[in-house]
Amino acid sequence: MECRTGCAACCIAISISSPIPGMPEGKPAGMRCIQLTDDNRCGIFGQASRPAVCSGLQAEEAMCGSNNQEAFHILTQLERQTAPGLR
């Protein structure tokens, strides 16, 4: 499955604990990554500074659903189920 251009659910809905350029402490769930452009594209895509957790994430229907809203819902639920203290 290919990422849907402009979705950015994984760049907003989930927390990222590793440093991101401009976000040295990572980012909490629900916060927009500072590297997202106005049209929801990764500003550091393909660059060495992109965190491994981001570059290793692969789109799949179980995570992305059939549309952007479904992706946000699925990823928000997964975050709640797996993040300490959010259950």
Automatic annotation (TrEMBL):
<protein>
    <recommendedName>
        <fullName>Zinc-or iron-chelating domain-containing protein</fullName>
    </recommendedName>
</protein>
<dbReference type="Pfam" id="PF03692">
    <property type="entry name" value="CxxCxxCC"/>
</dbReference>
<dbReference type="InterPro" id="IPR052572">
    <property type="entry name" value="UPF0153_domain"/>
</dbReference>
<dbReference type="InterPro" id="IPR005358">
    <property type="entry name" value="Puta_zinc/iron-chelating_dom"/>
</dbReference>
